[in-house]
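Q: Predict the bound structure with WQD.
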Amino acid sequence: MHNNILVTGGAGYIGSHVIVKLHEVGYNPIILDNFSNSAKSVLTGLKNITGKDFTCYEGDILDEELLGRIFSENKIDGVIHFAAKKAVGESVEKPLYYYKNNVSGLITVLESMIEHDCQNLVFSSSCTVYGQPDELPVTEKSPKKPANSPYGNTKQIGEETIEDVVVSGSKIKSIALRYFNPIGAHPSAEIGELPLGVPNNLVPFITQTAAGVREKLTVFGSDYNTPDGTCIRDYIHVMDLAEAHVQAIKALESVNEVSHFDVINIGTGRGNTVLEVINAFEKVTNKKLKYEIGPRRPGDVEKVYAQVDKSTAVLDWKTKHSLEDSMRDAWNWQQKISN
Ligand code: NAD
Ligand code: WQD
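A: Predicted complex:
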């Protein structure tokens, strides 16, 4: 099997790990990335892991001509669409930039797919569409809540855009994967998350603090209605998440309908508090983390974790890594990039 899969945003954090998994099972991934939030060194990391130089187009998903060229030069059998901006705070400051990049970008990708008779699309969505769910664990049938940022809105609009295109009778088959909180890195420490500037996310902040890049971690609030008062999330190892994409592409390939749309939660089914994440980090690294309890971060949901029955049934997939595995791999990666 040598199906070509176009991976937009393939040099990014999640995309790069998916490249490895696609290659492992015999797909030929082709990268399109403008490197606005990733580094060229990712390609070296990918080569060190796989021994392969993947085809990489440097450019923008908004560039229709470039997309046309990619589809003409390669028979693309499916698209995994990661390319998007993802910083919640920045999206509040620059809404038009976010709508253009994430929504117009998706539209350009869909138009190119339709023009070139490419049917299969995996879309990166997010548990952010659920806001604070009324019931936990959250299922795919749980209502979507009004987005609390332009970023979150681009994910809701993205899902709706694809669904409308499917309903309109075009031959698109798509699965939107609603990721919970991806963490960790490839166990080789050749690729991982490369946050620009001060990280917004918990795990890179923890590893940078332990590496001495940040002075201390602030835990955002300890007065939530959870066992230890800190927020609960469903942290998923990025290699497990990567495997779910391969399964989603395979699932789309075996869908017999002419068009198709589905949404699937991608998480572990477990919730962990911020303090549990810190404890797991300290346990696997044997290091004490410098942290203090601070005020709540505006906009944070109190607790969210996935119900995973649907991903197990539809994708024949389950997570394999523990929280400790994730923290160990995140730390190995941090040590590699701090040196
Ligand atoms: P990332 O920023 O590491 O990767 C995105 C990649 O897309 C980057 O390499 C960036 O350079 C590229 N890109 C952005 N805009 C582009 C454009 N216009 N043209 C070409 N390339 C472009 O982010 P990630 O964490 O790997 O996230 C991947 C996807 O998953 C995004 O759609 C994100 O919204 C979604 N997601 C991420 C998380 C998370 O916590 N990391 C959670 C839920 C959903
Ligand atoms: C996790 C927990 C914080 C940093 C964000 C996006 C969301 C989605 C995933 C893409 C929370 C706490 C964090 C720190 C802390 N992305 N924390 N100190 O908030 O679940 O979601 O990433 O779709 O859209 O908003 O992830 O990693 O920022 O925070 O105490 O310095 O860690 O309060 O409880 P979050 P996160």
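A: The mean pLDDT is 97.
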